[in-house]
């Protein structure tokens, strides 16, 4: 079922923590929010100690006053369930709810996310606080929806408490039914690992070998995802039961959760927390880095979960904890740019983090719109501008969908398997970045498409081209699905290491690329890993030469319809095929025996004649992103986003109106640094 | 109360370990010490297993013989209490005395400093061994004083045993009285951290978030300091009671101790262990590094505790453990240079570490004056020279005080808060080094002045200029004190991040620089962190341009008496104020919105017209340090120290005598490599 | 007793895991092995869970069928005892058999080598499974020998379980008899470490000081070696008792085992696992790196244990675990090159690792000869070529011994002491590599000679020259042995840090080089560590200048027969002796006060006029290795190995036949890339 934001109006707003501030500030805060055209506040997601100050004693006074006052000011309220931060009394009395390191060091009270998903007693306490809150606020006219917990699997996405080990045993038992099946799936005959009773089974534990059984390690991630979703379901079920008229979502994009399944099963739509200035401390590597523009990639992933979505924390100032993640301040205009980046990619609800910078605690430097001093500043001004603009055009955008004919394909199995497996795992990120960069710089809007056992041909057929860089794990089902897609006229692009593993992560006894060998029209003759000291041989095509990266496969053509369009140009593999194009039915498959770079991706875009959808009338410089949303009535919104700190000149051949200003644009138009235009 | 060395003569000597050597060597060792004009030996600080070979059994024979023999040779003796190294039988039987890692891994017997300060039973054992020793040696004519323990908080300066967690609970209870006060001070409303019973309170424990509650983390350091001092007091009280005629000190300059408070409360004077060749493995960063000359900074810190002080371990050879801290050998002359460096900065007692290099154990490569082979070597010769020189001039220097009109201001709160808080913490070290370097290279002697709740205006008024680079924590009291200092004609220089936090480490709801905004005549409009990839904008003044470093604040002038003397010269802040001078009463305040470099510090020295006090008659090259001590009668000793491996030429306009040689100096005088002159 | 491979024919073969594959593949696998002229398979070394699926229940069916079928195909079988991988039921029920980290974190089931050598119950289980297997297979006609366990001390070579601490106490008690002796040997008077009861004694445990008592740390390694050998003996004794007609060996070259003692006491010959492509991820540092050619060094070490030896795992494809040790693929020809590298250095039995790449588990990327797909590939072809060649010449080589007149001397005491002691430890590896490189590039075949308390003058007299770079620990016995060797006409070369420690690792109270000072004719006047920022002074000889590395000693000549042949040419030591040649009896001793580089080693080779033994008729380029084996009848086999990826031209002045091709060679002969010639 397609997931989308359930509000009737575009929601702009802010995260607010009334419990952090003297009550006399609240009314002024709300008043100024309204002045900025904010409609919504998110409250309460870390306030368990306020709602339940001691075991079984509940208190709603503070938030009743805060929510009533918000309502008086005409603000809507989203409530977070407060389970990310259990109170001190809880973890002190019931330490079995705490998570541990793999070595068995128990995490303790003091920060957040120190609990585990599998302790029965934590389920009981969580269910009770959620039920109490929902029952209390189900009829409040301001409350429109719920955020489950906060950022599941942020901080830590592995779990090794006793409760987790025990739950894993049960999960394995349920999945495999017999120990023979477990031993088969995990290849335990290797190194005498065979299990002969259920209680011998554990999540990975310390060993002298700096490694893990890879098949167990893959199931570990599936188990964590299932544990997280089961814990979320506990909360979601209560909300659905008690307050079916209020929507449910959660926020974040963290490890070891199948967000697609969670959203499908439990949520109305998905939400994300967007901090593009992380790019200043963790920039993407390589030439022409995308930096904050890379957040379009993250938002594309969010969009694959939920066609329109919420951004529940949109960066509004410098970010950082007292001791890490130290981000420079956003430049003038970047807060607005990033807001429209989120919206261009499908956000129909957007809350800034946060109203005012906290004066205490770990996040003292995770700055909000207002400074500690609470007086006017540049960010307040920028928020006002945005509020005014979205007040005019926000509702028009509502429900309009991002337009893309190309998708980069991902799946959870390969990403989880690839965390341990360095012979394919690291390649996906490099190829995805290379492709996203090539697509961005060519002004070709693109989606991310997740593929799994429920994916249908119809899901794929909305695209003309699928780029699936390194699906080492490839089931027969997926292979058949892709074949059907190609035969019907689609293009599929694979990179090295495709198709050689089954669902358990074991290798097929087939020539590479395994189950898609016939589809690709090639087999792999030989291959090698490469590193900086042993670089991969370069590849020559009709138009020039590009580097592979990290891996090289020598291909052998196995089909009459296959054509070699790139060959190695050095070392002992000189002249041998590196890139093969295979015609199948009405479509085409490209197989490249390497990891993609911006250059090889650009070459393939050219091969496939994939260009900007507005090429005929709009000429854009590389620094400007193009994104298009289209509503039910076919009306298009063309977003142009300038990520550079200098002016950029675009050329508009057919006159259009800038919806943000009402100004008619034609000919050479100058966009200001960090500027935004919506046509 | 002013602290100073309590001896009647200048003491030169050496650390000696009779227990390490065959008894037949002792007499020859003592004889040769006397030949070198050594007057003092330090003994016994690691000898607990000898004094108390099993629980409750005491033995003084070995040290009685060693001390009697020292006395016969005319040597004075300083005794260390041996508590840094509890015997094996003690920690084996009473493991609760051991310290632990934060994760709960208990340290064990085998090296040193593995105990904690809060185990009751360790207090009892420590009190007993100290009392036994003091009672035994109180009347020995050779024994002049005591060193408490050895290098408190060396090796490790955090403590996580059960005894420490428990003691912290009590410390918090005593400090805050109510849980409400604790919750307020630590901002526990943030992330639901509220404490509802005392037993929930712990020192920081493992968590999944790589951080800590910053206010608790600040109190943790205060608690460690208090624990250390309480433990030291236990010993000091016994010595005062039993042997009030013998002085008390301790040695070192390590983390998480308020040495000023400890010295004020317990000690007669403070002592330091000086190893300038650590500079070969941990050089100060940047252009023109100070290297071993940086030890003048350390000695200035020691001098802020104790106007004259002891150096209880002065480097006499290459240093290093078997497995780390591998230092190259000092060059010929450096041992002498460093001796006079200590003395120039205020040492009135100086013991070399150590008589002879140990042939066994972890410190086999922490070389002493004598080699394993015990035959003449270069270091023995150098020690003889020094002994001869100090025999002539040492007593003249006694009590003479280092002269400085400029002080760099420090305080414990900001340094402890800054350990976790990377948004101001790392700046102090960089600015302090920059200032010390600029002062050194301008031949302007400087002090370090620690400021706290007991500091008086009189304490400050001995200086004309105070440099207080980044006091994020700034109380009203300190602010008022500095204001009074300025009004009376003093100069104060601040850098970025000044004045925005209160004593708990929480932020004021005021525009930066918070409580000193009025004093500085500015507020901060906006700011940014910077790093290598996002460098700070450069600053332009009337004389040129310099770089900020790490941080930039855009200032807004708020006072008629304030004048912009430096502005940003690039990026979106171009032209905006970076450096403002404000006239207040008879004095001046400079506020710089960045971290200091040698260039910006030099610019401000020039602004303030601060120059060498002997500029009129003595021209010194950059490589030569100037230091001046003045005795009660106003007699000045002018130390010139050449830190370079090449000759340096100084120009003496008025004839003076080199006190080390009796030679009259005038005109161009050549100092040898690593040479020393005292005028 | 000289150890050598006990087979009557040269054995070529492969490691095979029938338990990993469908039984229907076995016959085809064996058939193809025979086609390749393979004669031997190694089986079963990780199959405990198959032999003993539950406690006390034994099952031999699977391996009976696999071994019978091998026999039917004419293959010999080597069996591994399976103790490297205890079954899950064992470690689950008896966790005391598990090894731990120093911090006490217990390793757990899941990979391999997680057991300890000292748990009594593991001894019982190990003895039983070994006895069961040997009794079962003692009379099988295919089974020729046994491999004990697999790669002792691979993965982890330290042990901290309770059983290990306890065993260490007993080991110490047995070695030292009294606590006084222990305290003396470990220098426990330093830092009050004195032990007063046996139960206070432990293996190194956590402490706050990042170090250990160095003498205890040395004994720790001796204890680990003894524990390993005692555990191996438990197995070897059973095999000797039950199947005295089958030989015994083990494979590997790992830390903390005296392989010489183990081989002498327990084994018929020693075996090694050779993976030269580790050089692609851990290349040797410096100019002209040896890379895969460095494996000649490893093989020389193996040869010092066993004059002919087995290679039980010879690299046949890319190697790597799923998560680390990622090696590029060998180039065409390298598998053959490395095979002959092993044989040239003394291998008389060689098994490839492995028949077919595993499709599951941690070693999915430790590729075998066959790929997952089991179809022809380049490596299969290369194996066929090798099989054909060795089928012709393998038996001729059997028992022929590698010829060398120069040996690099090593000993376990210095290597184990040097692990902790950074003031001499790291120098050996650098000097050994420098010397091996200089010898290789000069085409001077060399041995490694281990020296210990059993070494005799006869052992040394097979060499003309001994290079013993940095023997810090030097006993009187060894010193006398070397003196006798020199007096009889031998040459000995020492580097810095020689001779200053006794067997406990404590320093002699003598001038350096301690007990060999007279032999060397020098004492050390002063010395210094050096690092990149403080480089060692260069050394000038009659032919030029070379760098020392890491350390410099200023020498003083103490003998009339000593001559300074190298002096420092800079810094304050300029002109002082650095390299001294001393004539003693009929021989010569060289003492160099530094760490060796290729340049200083080459200079000394020239000094000693050591050149290629075939210089008169064979001119070789640097890239080609020369190795010579000579059989009982004096017949020489001259191996030429081209390690480069380009052709290399050799010049053969006297006509010879290439034994691999039968071709007569004279004049300029071109070797192909990675080519091999045997004359």
TrEMBL record, chains A, B, C:
It is an enzyme of class 3 (hydrolase). Signal peptide: none annotated. Residues 624-679 form the Beta-galactosidase C-terminal domain. It holds the Pfam family Glyco_hydro_42M. It catalyses: Hydrolysis of terminal non-reducing beta-D-galactose residues in beta-D-galactosides. Residues 404-609 form the Beta-galactosidase trimerisation domain. Residues 15-393 form the Glycoside hydrolase family 42 N-terminal domain. The keyword Zinc applies. Belongs to the glycosyl hydrolase 42 family. PANTHER family: BETA-GALACTOSIDASE GANA (PTHR36447), BETA-GALACTOSIDASE YESZ (PTHR36447:SF2). This is Beta-galactosidase. It comes from Evansella alkalicola. The lineage of its organism: Bacteria, Bacillati, Bacillota, Bacilli, Bacillales.
């Amino acid at each position: 079922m397609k997931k989308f934001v359930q509000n009737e109006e575009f929601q702009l707003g802010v995260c607010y923590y009334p419990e952090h501030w003297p009550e006399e500030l609240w009314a002024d805060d709300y008043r100024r929010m309204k002045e900025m055209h904010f409609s919504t506040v998110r409250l309460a997601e870390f306030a368990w100690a306020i709602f339940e100050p001691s075991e079984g004693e509940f208190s709603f006074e503070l938030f009743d006053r805060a929510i009533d006052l918000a309502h008086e000011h005409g603000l809507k309220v989203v409530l977070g369930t407060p389970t990310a931060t259990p109170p001190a009394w809880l973890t002190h009395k019931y330490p079995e709810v705490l998570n541990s390191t793999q070595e068995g060091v128990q995490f303790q009270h003091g920060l957040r996310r120190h609990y585990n998903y599998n302790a029965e007693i934590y389920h009981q306490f969580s269910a009770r606080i959620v039920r109490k809150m929902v029952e209390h606020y189900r009829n409040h006219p301001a409350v429109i929806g719920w955020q489950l917990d906060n950022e599941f699997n942020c901080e830590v996405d592995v779990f090794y408490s006793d409760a987790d080990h025990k739950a894993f045993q049960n999960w394995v038992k349920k999945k495999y039914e017999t120990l023979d099946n477990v031993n088969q799936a995990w290849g335990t005959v290797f190194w005498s690992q065979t299990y002969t009773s259920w209680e011998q089974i554990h999540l990975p534990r310390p060993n002298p070998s700096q490694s893990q059984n890879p098949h167990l390690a893959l199931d570990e991630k599936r188990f964590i995802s299932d544990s997280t979703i089961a814990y979320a379901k506990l909360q979601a079920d209560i909300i659905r039961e008690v307050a079916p008229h209020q929507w449910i979502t959660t926020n974040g994009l963290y490890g070891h959760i199948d967000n697609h399944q969670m959203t499908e099963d439990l949520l109305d739509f998905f939400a994300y927390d967007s901090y593009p200035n992380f790019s200043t401390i963790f920039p993407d590597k390589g030439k022409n880095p995308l930096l904050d523009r890379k957040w379009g990639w993250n938002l594309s992933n969010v969009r694959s979960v939920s066609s329109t979505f919420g951004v529940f924390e949109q960066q509004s100032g410098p970010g950082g904890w007292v001791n890490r993640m130290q981000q420079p301040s956003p430049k003038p205009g970047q807060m607005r740019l990033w807001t429209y980046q989120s919206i261009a990619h499908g956000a129909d609800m957007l809350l800034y983090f946060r109203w005012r910078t906290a004066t205490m605690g770990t996040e003292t430097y995770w700055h909000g719109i207002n400074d500690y001093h609470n007086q006017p500043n540049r960010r307040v001004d920028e928020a006002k501008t945005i509020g005014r603009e979205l007040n005019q055009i926000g509702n028009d955008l509502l429900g309009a969908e991002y337009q893309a004919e190309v998708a980069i394909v991902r799946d959870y199995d390969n990403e989880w398997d690839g965390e341990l497996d360095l012979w394919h795992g690291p390649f996906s990120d490099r190829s995805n970045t290379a492709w996203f960069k090539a697509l961005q710089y060519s002004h070709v809007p693109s989606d991310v498409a997740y593929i799994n056992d429920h994916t249908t041909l119809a899901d794929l057929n909305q695209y003309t081209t699928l780029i699936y860089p390194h699906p080492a794990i490839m089931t027969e089902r997926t292979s058949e699905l892709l074949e059907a897609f190609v035969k019907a006229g689609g293009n599929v692009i694979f990179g090295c290491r495709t198709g050689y593993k089954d669902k358990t992560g074991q290798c097929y006894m087939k020539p590479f690329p395994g189950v898609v060998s016939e589809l690709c029209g090639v087999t792999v003759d030989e291959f090698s890993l490469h590193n900086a000291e042993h670089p991969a041989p370069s590849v020559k095509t009709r138009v020039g030469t590009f580097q592979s990266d990290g891996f090289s496969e020598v291909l052998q053509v196995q089909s009459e319809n296959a054509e070699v369009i790139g060959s190695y140009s050095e070392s002992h593999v000189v002249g041998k095929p590196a890139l093969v194009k295979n015609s199948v039915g009405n479509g085409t498959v490209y197989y490249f025996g390497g990891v993609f770079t911006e250059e090889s991706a650009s070459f393939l875009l050219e091969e496939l004649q994939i260009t900007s959808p507005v090429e005929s009338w709009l000429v854009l410089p590389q620094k400007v992103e193009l994104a298009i949303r289209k509503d039910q009535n076919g009306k298009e919104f063309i977003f142009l986003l300038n990520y550079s700190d200098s002016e950029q000149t675009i050329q508009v051949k057919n006159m259009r109106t800038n919806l943000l200003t009402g100004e008619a644009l034609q000919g050479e138009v100058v966009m200001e640094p960090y500027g935004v235009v919506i046509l």
